[in-house]
UniProtKB/TrEMBL annotation:
UniProt GO MF annotations: allantoinase activity; dihydroorotase activity
Domain (Amidohydrolase-related): residue spans on this chain: 50-425
GO CC terms of this entry: cytoplasm
EC number(s) from the headed UniProt entry: 3.5.2.3
Presence of keyword Amino-acid biosynthesis: no
Keyword annotations: Hydrolase
EC class (word): hydrolase
Alphabetical list of InterPro entries matching this protein: Amidohydro-rel, DHOase/Allantoinase_Hydrolase, Metal-dep_hydrolase_composite, Metal_Hydrolase
Classification lineage: Bacteria, Pseudomonadati, Pseudomonadota, Gammaproteobacteria, Thiotrichales
Keyword Ribonucleoprotein assigned: no
The name this protein goes by in its record: Dihydroorotase
Lineage top rank: taxon: Bacteria
Length: 449
C-alpha cells in the first residue's frame, strides 16, 4: 500500500488553520498531526503552502453523454482536478435526459470509465416521469432535479408548475433541487424586448428579461409549497439579493429543510460586465446588478446561502458568439472556481476557513457524502495543496476545457493549485496529470437526518 506524508502544510479544515502533517495510506487519510518521517514514506514538503479538503462542486454540466462536442466527463473532470475540485455532481440534461434509474446507472458506468474526479448524478424529474420518480426508492440518490431540462421541452421547469411541484413535495423524501424562475414572466419580458429591438436584443437586457421578479416569485412560491409538506427543497444557483431574505441562518445546515447555493460567476461578475464580455457571460438565471452580487456574498458569509457551485456549462465559441436569442446559456468555470474564491480572500472579503466550509464541508454534509469533505482520519484523501503567492493569467494556453475558452481570459489570478489528491492518488501535480487511477462514485450515507 502506497504511503505519502505531506509535511508542514498550513491545513485549512474544520474552522481552523494549523501547521500540520497529513499521512495518506492507500485511499484514506491515516493520521493528522505531527508525524515523523520514516523509511518507505513518500514525503511532500508543503512548507509555505496551504492544504484543504478537495472542492466538491454540487452543480456541473459535463455534457456526457450526447453533447460531447462541448465537453465530456474525461476532459471536464481533468479541468476540475487541476482547479482543486475532487468531486462533482452532474445535472440530468444530457442526451438522453436522465429520467429513469437505468439511464442514471448508465451514466455512473460511463463516469467510472472516464472521470479523474469522484462523481455523482441527479435523477431528472419533470411532469412526464413524475409518477415513476414517486415510486422510486430515492434513499441512495443525491437528489432529484429539473435543472437544464427546460432546454429539452417547454414546461419542464418545476417552479412554473406548482401542481406538479406540490405532488413531488408531498411524495418524494429526497432532496428536490430546482431551477427557480417563472417561465411565464421570462416569456413576457422576451416579447417586450423583441417588440423594441426585433431579433437583435442587446445582451444587456438579459438580466431584465430573466428578471429579479421572475426569480423571486418562483422561489417564494416554491418555498411556501415545500414548507406546507415539510419537503427538502434546494434552490440552485441563486442570483438576487432579494431572494436571500427567504432563507434562514438561525439553525445549522443539518436541520434545514430549505437550502440554497450560489455559483461563482454570480459572485464575480455583474451586469456592467455584459458590455465587455457580451454573450460569453450569458447564464440562466442571469448575472444581475452589483447590488445583487454584493447581497449574494453577504448571504454566503452569514450562512443564508449554504455552499458554492459553478454551474459549469461549456458551449463552443461558435454556439456562444451568436445574437441574443440564438446564443446558448452557460459557460465553463470548474477549473477556476477555487482561484476566484481565493481572489476574494486576498481582497479581505472572505476567510480561508469560510471558503473551505462553503466549497468542501457543506456540500459533503448536505448531500450526506460518506467520508468526504474534511481532512480527518479515516476519510478519503481528497485534498488540494495551493500556493497563495503564485500569480498567473488565464489564457488559451492554460485553459483545459474541451471548448477551449473561458470568460476569465485575460484575468490575473494570484493563487495556484500545486497538487490535487483524489482518493489518495496524486491525480495532478504542477501541470501534470496521472490518470492511472480514476475517481469513485459518491456514496450517500443511509442514516436518517
Amino acid at each position: 500500500m502506497k504511503k505519502t506524508l505531506i509535511k508542514n502544510a498550513m491545513v485549512v479544515n474544520d474552522g481552523h488553520i494549523q501547521q500540520l502533517d497529513v499521512l495518506i495510506e492507500g485511499q484514506f487519510i491515516a493520521a493528522v498531526g505531527t508525524i515523523p518521517s520514516i523509511d518507505g514514506l513518500e514525503v511532500v514538503d508543503a512548507t509555505g503552502l496551504y492544504l484543504m479538503p478537495g472542492v466538491i462542486d454540487g452543480q456541473v454540466h459535463f455534457r456526457d453523454p450526447g453533447l460531447t462536442h462541448k465537453g465530456d466527463i474525461a476532459t471536464e473532470s481533468r479541468a476540475a482536478v487541476a482547479g482543486g475540485t475532487t468531486s462533482y455532481i452532474d445535472m440530468p440534461n444530457t442526451r438522453p435526459n436522465v429520467l429513469s434509474m437505468p439511464l442514471l446507472e448508465e451514466k455512473y458506468a460511463l463516469a467510472a470509465q472516464k472521470s479523474l474526479a469522484n462523481f455523482g448524478f441527479f435523477l431528472g424529474v419533470n411532469g412526464d416521469n413524475l409518477d415513476e420518480v414517486l415510486q422510486t426508492d430515492t434513499s441512495s440518490l443525491l437528489a432529484v432535479s429539473d435543472d437544464g431540462l427546460y432546454f429539452t421541452k417547454k414546461g419542464n421547469l418545476l417552479a412554473d408548475n406548482p401542481e406538479t411541484l406540490e405532488k413531488l413535495f408531498a411524495g418524494c423524501p429526497a432532496i428536490i433541487a430546482i431551477h427557480s424562475e417563472k417561465e411565464q414572466l421570462v416569456e413576457e419580458n422576451e416579447e417586450r424586448y423583441r417588440a423594441q429591438y426585433g431579433d437583435n436584443v442587446p445582451i444587456e437586457c438579459h438580466p431584465l428579461i430573466r428578471s429579479e421578479q421572475a426569480c423571486f416569485e418562483a422561489t417564494e412560491r416554491a418555498i411556501a409549497l415545500a414548507n406546507r409538506h415539510s419537503a427538502r427543497l434546494h434552490i440552485l444557483h441563486l442570483t438576487t439579493a432579494a431572494e436571500t431574505a427567504l432563507f434562514r441562518n438561525d439553525i445549522p445546515l443539518t436541520k434545514k429543510r430549505i437550502t440554497t447555493e450560489v455559483s461563482v460567476h454570480h459572485l464575480w461578475f455583474n451586469d456592467q460586465d455584459y458590455a465587455r464580455l457580451g454573450t460569453r457571460i450569458k447564464w440562466n438565471p442571469a448575472i444581475k446588478t452589483e447590488q445583487d452580487r454584493q447581497g449574494l456574498m453577504q448571504a454566503l458569509l452569514d450562512d443564508r446561502i449554504d455552499f458554492i457551485t459553478t454551474d459549469h456549462a461549456p458551449h463552443t465559441e461558435e454556439e456562444k458568439d451568436q445574437p441574443y436569442f440564438q446564443s446558448m446559456s452557460g459557460a465553463p468555470m470548474v477549473q477556476h472556481s477555487l482561484n476566484i474564491m481565493l481572489e476574494f480572500y486576498r481582497q479581505g472579503v472572505i476567510s480561508l476557513e469560510k471558503i473551505v466550509e462553503k466549497m468542501s464541508h457543506n456540500p459533503a454534509t448536505f448531500y450526506r457524502m460518506s467520508k468526504r469533505g474534511f481532512i480527518r482520519e479515516g476519510y478519503y484523501a481528497d485534498m488540494v495543496l495551493f500556493d497563495l503567492n503564485q500569480p498567473w493569467t488565464v489564457s488559451k494556453d492554460n485553459i483545459l476545457y474541451k471548448c477551449g475558452w473561458s470568460p476569465l481570459e485575460g484575468t490575473e489570478l494570484h493563487s495556484q493549485v500545486v497538487s490535487t489528491w483524489v482518493n489518495g492518488h496524486l491525480a495532478y501535480h504542477q501541470g501534470v496529470f496521472d490518470d492511472t487511477q480514476l475517481g469513485l462514485p459518491l456514496v450517500v450515507e443511509q442514516a436518517a437526518r
